[in-house]
Each structure stands twice: as C-alpha cells, then as structure tokens.
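@here heads up, posting the sequence + SMILES for the magnesium ion run so it's all in one place. Ping me if the SMILES looks off, I pulled it from an old spreadsheet.
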Amino acid sequence: MDKLLLIDDEVDVQYSFRRIFDSPDLELHTASSGEEGLKLIPQVRPDLVITDIRMAGINGLETLRRIRQADPKLPVILMTAYGTTQTAIEAMKLGAFDYLLKPFDVPRLKQLVGDALKASRDMRQTVAVAPQLEQQDYDLGVIGRSHPMQSVFKLIGQVAGTDATVLITGESGTGKELVARAIYHNSRRHQQAFLAINCAAIPENLLESELFGHEKGAFTGASQQRIGKFEQCHGGTLFLDEIGDMSSTTQTKILRVLQSGSFERVGGNAPIRVDVRIIAATNKPLEDAVANRQFREDLFYRLNVVRIQMPPLRERRDDIRLLVDYFLRKLAGAGIPKAINTSAIAALEAYHWPGNVRELENVIRRATVVAKGPSLLISDLPSEVTVAVQKAVSTPVASPAPDAAVVAAPVESTGAHRSEPTSIPEVAQWLFRFARADSKLRVLPAVERELIIQALKETSGNQVQAAKLLGITRATLRKRVEKFSIRRELNVA
Ligand SMILES: Nc1ncnc2c1ncn2[C@@H]1O[C@H](COP(=O)(O)OP(=O)(O)OP(=O)(O)O)[C@@H](O)[C@H]1O
Ligand SMILES: [Mg+2]
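bot reply: prediction finished. Complex structure tokens:
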C-alpha cells in the first residue's frame, strides 16, 4: 500500500484529500505544519509528500529543502496559490517532483499523485540482478539463468558502477525498464533521484519542454517558466524510455547534453550545466531508424556506447520455470497456489510468448485467480497458450517435404515469431519438453498413438486414407490400431 503525507494547515484541504484519496490502496496521513510533517516522516515513512507553500512556522520551501537533505529519493509535490508560482518554480530547481495550483483540478491532482508514486516505487523498490530465489533482501529481481541472460547480467555488472550511457534494446515486455532500474539500484547514484520519462507518451511538441524546461513566453501557452527533468534530476539518473520516438530537435538537444553536459531551456539562452546519467531504451530497431534518417547517427553512437540487447523469452525457454516460481512467490497469499503441475509448465515452455515476460507474468496472475486447487493446472491457462501446445502435439506433421519447405521459408526469412515448429527435428525438440516435464510420459508410443488417432479423425475413420496420410500400409495401420486399442478410444470420443 502507498502512503501519502499531506502537509497543509487548512482543514478544508485535508478534508478534500480524504475524500479524493479514499481508497484501500492508499494510506493518507496529514500534518498541519512543516514541523509536524518533518517529525512524522521517519515514523510514517511516506512514499510521497504533498506540502503547501505558505504556512505558519517553516514554509513549504524550507520543508522541501530539509526533506531533500534527509532523503533525496522521497518525491515532494508543492501546492501553491496562483500568486506564488515563482516560489514553486524555485522549488522545482531544488528537486521538487512538481507543483500544483490551488484550487486544484482533481483529475490533474490524481494524475500527478499517480506519477509521483510510480517514481517513488522506482526509487525505493530495490531491483536485484540474478537473485537467488531464497534470498529475501530485494523487492524485484531480474530473473534468469539462461546463457543470453548471463550475458545481460555481465553487462549490467560492468556498467552499473560507471557513469556510462547505456542503451537497452529488445522486444516489448523483455525487461528493458527493469534492467534500467537494476542498473540504477546498483550504481553509485543509487541514493540520488531516478526519473523515468516515456518519450512516446508525451506529445512531440511538449517533450522538449518536459525534458529541458522553458522560459516564460517561449511559445503560446508558456505563461510560466518551467523546469525540465534534466534540471530536476541533477546528480541523479534519467531513464529515457522509447527514445526511438523523438523529434530531431529534441535529439539534437540530447546529443548536446551528452557531449557537453549543458543545455538551454526552450526559449532561453543561458546554458545550464547538469550532471545526469542517462539510460535509454527502445523496442524499435534504431539502426533502421538511422538508415532511414529518422534518428541521428551521431546520437545513436553516443547512446550505443554500452548496448544491452534483451533476449526474447522464446529464446530462453529454460528460464520459464524459474520465472513462474518467482511470480508465484511474489503473488503468494491466502488461496494462491504455490506450485504448478508438470503439464502446465510444459505448455508454458512450448508457447512462443509474443508479449515476452510481461505476458508470462499476466498469464500467471490470471491463472492464480481462476485456479481452484493448490497447484496451477493446464486448464487454468488461457486458451492462446494451450491451443498452441495442442497444435504442437496433435498436428499431423508427416506432410510432404515441399509443403513444409514452403511453410518454413517465409517464417525464417522474416524472422517472425515462430509459434509452431517448422521441421521434424524441431517437432522432436518440442516433444522432448513434454518428456522432460513429465517423467512418466513415454514420448515415442504416446506420439505414435496420437498420430494414428488424429489421422483417423482427420479422414473420418477411412483407414485407406489414414494410412496414406501416415505414410504406412493399411495392414500396418490395422496392427497399430489393435496394439494401441485405438478403436475403443475413437468410439468413446
Ligand atoms: N528477467 C525478468 N525477471 C523478472 N521479471 C521480469 C523480467 N523481465 C521482465 N520482467 C517483468 O515483466 C514486466 C515487463 O518488463 P518491462 O516493463 O521492464 O519490459 P519492457 O522491455 O520495458 O517492455 P516495453 O517495451 O513494452 O516497455 C515487468 O513487470 C517486469 O518486472
Ligand atoms: Mg518499457
């Protein structure tokens, strides 16, 4: 549960906050003065502080200064009446998360509180690199033992202690943001701020001013000076997510900060020096964007000093079991299964995971909700997972070779996600997963029997056609039908 501390001497404001934030996920604490608020912080350990600026005793700005000194990772939002916005801007320079004008706009207040709580979690939840599952002293872990993940861990270890710029690339849901946070938590800047900014979520014309701030009157609507993330994050780490979606002006400015450590606010001409470490991420192939002249080549090389390429989950299936155990442990609670049975694991290991680890996490979360027993079963998994697996086991694979080649070619050449094996050796590899997951399964007889059943079903029981489909004689088919007592089975079905 998140904890919010409100510091305001007006009873009305305290009352509105109680109404607005009446939620089981949020614990609201209130203080009526800066002194009282500062005293409460070590007791309550809030995730976010919202303070008024004008108060009797020590004012909001001084309260902010003292909080920043004691804990630079606790986000503070200032509230101010219109006439005092200059003070609020000063507060931003001191590292306030943001400010709000009174009387406040409730949706904006909620949005800001949501953003600040996310930033607070990013800074507080420690992310361990390759933890042992039994280890207790971390909140989140970058889980994996496969070879591609070992390389990722090695790179994190090499860059975490430096101030090098890091570029993290990979498909959606592969853990780019998690790795960025792991680098931060293991870096020498871990006591300072970490701010994440999603470049794709902010309209292009606003992104530049969000990052670098603007001067009053810089453009229509710029009625006040604004302090950008680079200034706010001085001394800390800035995570530029989805960096592939950035206009060329913003790219130029980023390049300059990387080269010289300084920039100007939009509409300003005084250079501002900052000390910020940059971690960038994107799921777009930046090399292509460079080739198409959508992304500056010089910026690309500046960012690409250290490159961490996240492997897709389907290329590290050995990690699936470990990830499932980790997610079950994280979800642990009354009525939540603690285990998973072998055929469910086999199904998860066979699926192609277009949404990567995020998709796996969602599948496990949903499965724990529908599960009735102490273990997750294959029936608790969503149909997209189980259908892919049934196909893998039951699709007749003895199709003529030319067809197989036609099917395989486009899949291979586009490098698209493969949901099904495209050659017999691959089918064998898939089947071995089931064998490894279930020590009682005798894979060869099980497959032979299933092929015969499916061939007969496919041909509505016509043995001549079924035998042809299977590439055996009718006599052999008949013997196998006897051997595996298949007729009885088919009649029942
Ligand atoms: N190796 C891992 N171990 C544990 N959890 C992971 C791992 N990789 C990803 N996750 C979890 O999967 C989810 C998605 O990860 P994250 O947000 O870092 O992906 P992303 O690559 O940034 O995706 P997108 O490109 O869609 O933004 C998160 O909940 C994250 O904690
Ligand atoms: Mg991300």
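MO: The longest strand covers residues 2-7.
MO: One more: The chain has four domains: 2-124, 127-311, 315-437, 443-492.
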